[in-house]
């Protein structure tokens, strides 16, 4: 087995004090000596929903517009089934060997190291943390667009439609970054329960509003718009690129496998696997229903002209659109943290392991709230992470294209390849058996989808760059 790092609970410096293997009080500590995990089906579902139902849901109407009425819904359901299927494999990979007493893997990367080892461990780390970082950038862009939309709709309403209300996006990207400077100091996943629940509620809020507005638009139109083949393009090549990009956007909308093990590590023992699978069933079923409804209703409302961000297509009632956009911003505050926490923990653990960097703890008493231990290293490094992420979001604010690239990067390796390979290894599945051939065929097909999505999204970014000036995002 590979020597893989263990993620810390509070932070790198606190690991020694929170991991007390010599302590035998089963009411306070789990079998690995760490403080009792308290996660349930509902907290786990909230983490998953916060991660899954994100800004990606707003691009689904555009994605279906590229694929058409038949292929669009089929592709969405296909991605949901693949995600559900492979999530079971990942849930079984949390412990090595026995599902109740086996050695825990605290992170996705560590699960790869414990089961597959070798180069897989390094490849997984590169793909996972690149994907997590890219998601943080994508969510920063998405939140800024929603804040811009609020300003623009209010301006248009107050001017009674006389003002075109051009809105620059840089300040909103900076504002979101400033908010994340504060929330990035949450120590770890175990302290994020309330934020995840709030974010999950917000995701349902703006999804339901988008759904209701779409239904109202269809009622006003008197018919469902859209075609079997989807939107036309100037050339056949552009049509192909758009389809590929749509695949990437849909893949991004379902991506959460790269943080599944980290979420599972918050679940109460000894029910980690059962709870994770139940929460996955609840979450994927819920999100798929929302996705199909929002995507299809949005496409039915606007047809082949469906925008990349569904909420930008509506201009009334302005107050309801503002609520939806505000809910999206609040949701993305939590989703940003859900995706960033594994990366935070990895860097802090590595800094402690390699360079003995721990940082000093400063106890801060906050009125009404419990006291907070401020870690110097955590403060500096996480703040730097947020600043750089914010800067990149200002530099390349291409919402749909960024989502497509992120979805393509993470879908095959993290959602399909590694879970399949770990399942085959753990089950000691014979090579060339029926099950082995099926799983490898599924993996190869998803690889082709990933390559296609990556090509389409990169082409989209190249096209956008032709007419774009850096730091000039606007709506």
TrEMBL record:
<dbReference type="GO" id="GO:0009734">
    <property type="term" value="P:auxin-activated signaling pathway"/>
</dbReference>
<feature type="compositionally biased region" description="Basic and acidic residues">
    <location>
        <begin position="22"/>
        <end position="32"/>
    </location>
</feature>
<keyword id="KW-0472">Membrane</keyword>
<protein>
    <recommendedName>
        <fullName>Amino acid transporter transmembrane domain-containing protein</fullName>
    </recommendedName>
</protein>
<feature type="domain" description="Amino acid transporter transmembrane">
    <location>
        <begin position="37"/>
        <end position="462"/>
    </location>
</feature>
<keyword id="KW-0813">Transport</keyword>
<dbReference type="InterPro" id="IPR013057">
    <property type="entry name" value="AA_transpt_TM"/>
</dbReference>
<feature type="transmembrane region" description="Helical">
    <location>
        <begin position="195"/>
        <end position="216"/>
    </location>
</feature>
<comment type="similarity">
    <text>Belongs to the amino acid/polyamine transporter 2 family. Amino acid/auxin permease (AAAP) (TC 2.A.18.1) subfamily.</text>
</comment>
<comment type="function">
    <text>Carrier protein involved in proton-driven auxin influx. Mediates the formation of auxin gradient from developing leaves (site of auxin biosynthesis) to tips by contributing to the loading of auxin in vascular tissues and facilitating acropetal (base to tip) auxin transport within inner tissues of the root apex, and basipetal (tip to base) auxin transport within outer tissues of the root apex. May be involved in lateral roots and nodules formation.</text>
</comment>
<dbReference type="Pfam" id="PF01490">
    <property type="entry name" value="Aa_trans"/>
</dbReference>
<dbReference type="GO" id="GO:0012505">
    <property type="term" value="C:endomembrane system"/>
</dbReference>
<feature type="compositionally biased region" description="Polar residues">
    <location>
        <begin position="1"/>
        <end position="20"/>
    </location>
</feature>
<dbReference type="GO" id="GO:0005886">
    <property type="term" value="C:plasma membrane"/>
</dbReference>
<feature type="transmembrane region" description="Helical">
    <location>
        <begin position="379"/>
        <end position="399"/>
    </location>
</feature>
<keyword id="KW-0927">Auxin signaling pathway</keyword>
<dbReference type="GO" id="GO:0006865">
    <property type="term" value="P:amino acid transport"/>
</dbReference>
<keyword id="KW-0029">Amino-acid transport</keyword>
<feature type="transmembrane region" description="Helical">
    <location>
        <begin position="70"/>
        <end position="91"/>
    </location>
</feature>
<feature type="transmembrane region" description="Helical">
    <location>
        <begin position="44"/>
        <end position="64"/>
    </location>
</feature>
<keyword id="KW-0769">Symport</keyword>
<feature type="transmembrane region" description="Helical">
    <location>
        <begin position="136"/>
        <end position="151"/>
    </location>
</feature>
<dbReference type="GO" id="GO:0015293">
    <property type="term" value="F:symporter activity"/>
</dbReference>
<feature type="transmembrane region" description="Helical">
    <location>
        <begin position="318"/>
        <end position="339"/>
    </location>
</feature>
<feature type="transmembrane region" description="Helical">
    <location>
        <begin position="405"/>
        <end position="424"/>
    </location>
</feature>
<feature type="transmembrane region" description="Helical">
    <location>
        <begin position="436"/>
        <end position="463"/>
    </location>
</feature>
<keyword id="KW-1003">Cell membrane</keyword>
<keyword id="KW-1133">Transmembrane helix</keyword>
<feature type="region of interest" description="Disordered">
    <location>
        <begin position="1"/>
        <end position="32"/>
    </location>
</feature>
<feature type="transmembrane region" description="Helical">
    <location>
        <begin position="282"/>
        <end position="302"/>
    </location>
</feature>
<feature type="transmembrane region" description="Helical">
    <location>
        <begin position="172"/>
        <end position="189"/>
    </location>
</feature>
<keyword id="KW-0812">Transmembrane</keyword>
């Amino acid at each position: 087995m590979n020597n893989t790092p263990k993620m810390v609970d509070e932070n790198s410096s606190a690991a020694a004090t929170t991991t007390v293997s010599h302590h035998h009080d089963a009411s306070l500590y789990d079998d690995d000596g760490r403080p009792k995990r308290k996660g349930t089906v509902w907290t786990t579902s909230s983490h998953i929903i916060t991660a899954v139902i994100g800004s990606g849901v707003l691009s689904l109407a555009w994605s279906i517009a590229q694929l058409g009425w038949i292929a669009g819904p089929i592709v969405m359901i296909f991605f949901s089934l693949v995600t559900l299927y492979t999530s079971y494999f990942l849930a079984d990979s949390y412990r090595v060997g026995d599902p109740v007493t086996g050695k825990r893997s605290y992170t996705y990367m560590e699960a790869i190291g414990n089961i597959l080892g070798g180069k897989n461990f390094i490849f997984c780390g590169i793909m996972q943390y690149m994907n997590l970082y890219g998601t943080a950038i994508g969510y920063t862009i998405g939140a800024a667009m929603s804040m811009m939309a609020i300003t623009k709709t209010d301006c248009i309403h107050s001017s009674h439609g006389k003002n075109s209300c051009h809105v620059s996006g840089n300040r909103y990207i900076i504002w979101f970054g400033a908010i994340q400077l504060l929330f990035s100091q949450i120590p770890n996943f175990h302290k994020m329960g309330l934020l995840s629940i709030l974010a999950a509620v917000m995701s349902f809020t703006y999804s339901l509003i988008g759904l209701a507005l779409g239904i109202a638009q269809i009622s006003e139109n008197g018919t469902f718009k859209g075609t079997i083949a989807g939107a036309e393009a100037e050339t056949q090549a552009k049509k192909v690129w758009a389809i590929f990009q749509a695949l990437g956007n849909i893949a991004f909308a379902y991506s959460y496998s790269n943080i599944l093990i980290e979420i599972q590590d918050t679940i109460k023992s000894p029910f980690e696997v059962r709870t994770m699978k139940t929460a996955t069933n609840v979450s994927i079923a819920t999100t798929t229903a929302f996705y199909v409804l929002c995507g299809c209703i949005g496409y039915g409302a606007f047809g082949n002209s469906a925008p990349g961000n569904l909420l930008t297509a509506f201009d009334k009632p302005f107050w309801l659109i503002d609520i939806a956009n505000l809910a999206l911003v609040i949701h993305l505050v939590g989703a940003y943290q859900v995706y960033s926490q594994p990366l935070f923990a990895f860097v802090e653990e590595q800094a402690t392991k390699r360079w003995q960097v721990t940082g000093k703890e400063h106890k801060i008493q906050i009125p009404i709230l419990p006291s907070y231990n401020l870690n110097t290293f955590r403060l500096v490094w996480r703040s730097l992470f947020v600043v750089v992420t914010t800067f990149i979001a200002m530099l390349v604010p291409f919402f749909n294209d960024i989502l497509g690239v992120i979805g393509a990067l993470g879908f095959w390796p993290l959602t399909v390849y590694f879970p399949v390979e770990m399942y085959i290894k753990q089950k000691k599945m014979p090579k060339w058996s029926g099950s082995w051939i099926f799983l490898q065929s599924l993996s190869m097909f998803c690889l082709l989808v990933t390559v296609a999505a990556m090509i389409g999204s990169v082409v989209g970014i190249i096209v956008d760059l032709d007419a774009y000036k850096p730091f000039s995002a606007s709506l």
